[in-house]
Amino acid sequence: MDSEWQELPLTQDNQFGPIPNIATIAFDTQQELLWVGDIHGRITSYRWPIERQLLRYTALNAHTEDEGPVQQFLFNEKGVISVAAKSVHFMIRRALTQWHLEDKDMIDLSCMSFLGKESSHQILVGGRQKVMFKIDVDEGSILEKVPANSDYIMMKHSRLYICAATNTGSIDFLHPVTLQVVKTWSAHSSKISSMDAKNDFLVTCGWSTRPHGNPSLDTIAKVYDLKKLEQAAPISFPAGAAFVQIHPKLSTTTVVASQNGQIHVADIHNTDHVKVLHMTLAHFMSLMIMSPSGKVWAIADQDNTIHLWGSPHDLQFCEISKPPELADPSMPSLHMAVDADMPLSTIGMPYYYESLFSNWGYDRELKVQKPPAAIDPDIFKQLRLDPTGSGRAQWVTNPRKVRRNQVDLNESHLVNGSSTSKNRISDTTNRLANVALSATKEVVPQLYQYARMNYDHKHGVKGFDFEHYNKTAHSGLENDIINCYLNPLIQVLRFTVLVRNLALHHVAGSCLSEGCLLCELGFLFDMLEKAGGTACRAMNFLKAFSSRPEAVKLGILEESSPRNKSDARLSTANRFILEQICNDFRRVLQYDFSLDQTLKTNGLQGYQCLNCGFETHRNEFSLVINLMYPDSNLFNRPRNHVPKFSETLGLGFQGEQRSRGWCLGCKKYASMESQRNVVRVSDVLIINAGLEKSPKSRQLWTNPGWLPHEIGITVEGNHIMCIEGQQLQPFRNYRSTTLYELVGLVAEISGTETQSSHLVSFIDVAGSNREPQTESQWHLFNDFVVAPVDQREALDFAPHWKTPVVLIYQVSHARNSIDDSWKKAIDINPLYYDGSMNHLGNPHTLTPNEEYILPGTHVAIDAEFVVLQRKEIEISYSQTEHIIRPPRSAIGRLSVLRGGSGPTSGLPFIDDYIIVTEPIIDYVTQYSGLSEGDLNPTTSRHAPIHLKVAYKKLWLLLNLGAIFIGHGLYNDFRNCNIHVPDEQYIDTSKLFQKGEYTLRLSFLANHFLKEDIQVGNHDSIEDARSALQLYRKAQEFIAKGTLEQEVDGAHEEWRKRLAFQRLEEPRRDIGAGELLGGRMTPEGGGRRGVGSRPETPVRRGRGREEGSGLFESPLRGGGDGG
């Protein structure tokens, strides 16, 4: 505390008058702003400019006047959170509301706290009520309602606990994860006036009840040791402690103040040494707060005046602050003399977000050919007519003015000899003017257009903001993988509850078959549910799909049949996938026909020879129903009759068609007529729209409401009847009537001038929620773009650019019937055997009947990868590089170690080498430790296993509740194609992160563990064990309260080594294929594997980080790698 501290002369809010009825004040932690909340729910911010004046910055009525005063502020990088009695409000610092939460259980809120550091995305809100709220700040949603142990009036977050003060003078210490009360401390006998917590200490001041008198302020400030959970020596304050705060930068220095302006600055460990200050105030103090830098105090008195105290030579609210965003200054208008000498290009034009009428596209052009040459008048003179009197020309003498097959190009001789050049231009203009705008292409809305992923050269896909394209809780799928045209179909199947349940039950069973599509669907469904809005990849599913030889024959692979239309390809792929997953289901459970009953419609197919009338019948099962559109030219059909959807579906069930086949009666090939009699309809109806074969029928889909959300199907005898709309009402209670609801559909979005057509899906996600909901919730899934849409928009096919391809209906009684019983019946046997093909034996397994994976079990993990495909780069005319497709890699080795503290801690129980069947272009031996032949089952000495077995082990650990510990886990999980929730992994690169900078695993091991790892080639067991030891070391630092200091020291040591390394390295240019950071880059060199081939060198510029040694393995991102 500088002796020069004094009250600062302020000019506050000169334009708008005094601040009325101040309820709370707070300093911003990110910018030089002071926030004030009044008793009417209004929030005002004041900025601290160079002029040393408080100038009003923003103001907003965040809460209604009925709620009373603003109780508290919290700040993070994105904005400001405020709480009042019945609502929680979040806005950016420019006073633009991001979300506003109200709930029937919000009765009298008064306090809140982050559940982690200030960068946490979750807060806990409580008050004088029996319910607390756990809120997601990013989503603006209530995650959980937590019962409160008491009525709380204040909350402070410490390193270990959330300290919640009650209205009776006691304090509850809440665990930040479970939110359970760990201990209760009776601090004051009446109530608490102020408190603050930092690191391991809590300081409070309050009121105590005196015998036969009113409560009065205590003459001590009480101190509590949060680490030992016991009371420490109090701080004496005879004037009556009304306000208390721990210095933001000095963790043991406490400021205690009275209502009349007396201030004591004391050290918690040495309460005898006190510095006394006094502020001269005309009125009693009502609020006191210290800035995050500790250099400025803000004091509000009972006259609603704010006083700032500090040193005039060092005024700063934050240590590192961002400048507030101010309005752009208005540009003075320029006087321009409009005359013949002034070019019109100097007049600026506005930017338009919509296409102008003057922007004529290619579709609006009318090609006008050259008019035919005029007929020579001499020909008419010599024309001879037919003598029969028919008036037809019979013959004419050739005047021979030009050679044979030649015409005169003289523009004066035109049609009929009367048109001039001017008339011809006018005629063309008139024809262009008659082109109807309705016949032109409609503009495809941006939400439906193909979204392309952009990759950052430094961070790769991590630099792409997926949250900008998806603000829902439903995950999308990335579209940078071959055959990702299946993404929309996968999404619809995922939200089909019956398919989802069976797929997850299957994957939780004993199936270990390589290439099982049903298992891959189950893995993918589980990943999408756990992701909760984060974009995922269908990499393993699409790899299994592409590996099927039947897929090549059917022409449904993009790499083998790139010219096939997307709608026809998807229709064929839809039928193929359904057949495969039914076969996969029966392969494991031969006598379980649950999936067949769910997907297959049973019928009796009849064939009749049109030659001899011979009839044959056979049983037939249909996985897909093709809509059949009635012929509009039938004699018995009214001219204006519009067929309903139910009619086309009924014709599709009957499947009446003609074809040639072998007749047993005629004993020869003849025309056959076939028709199906439906016996049983499946629980899930998967329907092909069939418009690729009947394009004229698309006009039916343009009728409003033509596609019904609900249909009924009645099967009686050999007759099937499909009903919809008002006609369905009388049949709802019929025993033979089954009701179906539309789950979703896949539609083709026509291409634009710069993009080809692609597929999207529209899904009613309400039917797959665990909580029943009556209203529909339609969403658009355009790969990783996910957005809610109105039902009318989802089912509207009037725009010509939107065409239905596949529809999925499901029985109505299956709505919201989510079955999670598979989680209790998971087959854990793969964790207890190696699964290798050559049966060499692998000691790295769990011991049966002795070792179990329980929720919360710590395991250390590391994976190594090999390169299958280089990244594809597009270089523009300006020499700018754009990554079209990132490098593709495959997992080559997976190692998982035991955690805990027993004798087996740090020993591996999974160390699998994985078979890679695709050509490997680079083993990256220096970083993966893998070499040629290690992943080939015929030549490897490591007993490699199939990817399916290794992946299922990882999936089992995830669903058993294990907590993964590793270094740079983002890229490991991404390349393994698995999503692990944040609460189930601990990344040591983040534990020792400072700002945006992370440190290499080898450096951290050397600095903290005094071990040299990654000497030579990498070893995944060594890396995983080092990460486990670093985690334990970080826990020791946290217990001592020295983690922040240790991290600062590590980063300082790294900077010293980096500076020394740069001085030692010779200065030279680094080209493609040269050493980057002391090692060979995979783009230009390194070990090549089987199938390697020369590459076109890529031009590189020397970035500021080249040669720094900060880079990790090329298969890992930045400093996150191990």
Automatic annotation (TrEMBL):
Transmembrane segments: none annotated. GO terms for cellular component: P-body; PAN complex. It is found in: Cytoplasm. One of its GO terms (molecular function) is metal ion binding. Its EC number is 3.1.13.4. It catalyses: Exonucleolytic cleavage of poly(A) to 5'-AMP. Belongs to the peptidase C19 family. PAN2 subfamily. Forms a heterotrimer with an asymmetric homodimer of the regulatory subunit PAN3 to form the poly(A)-nuclease (PAN) deadenylation complex. This is PAN2-PAN3 deadenylation complex catalytic subunit PAN2.
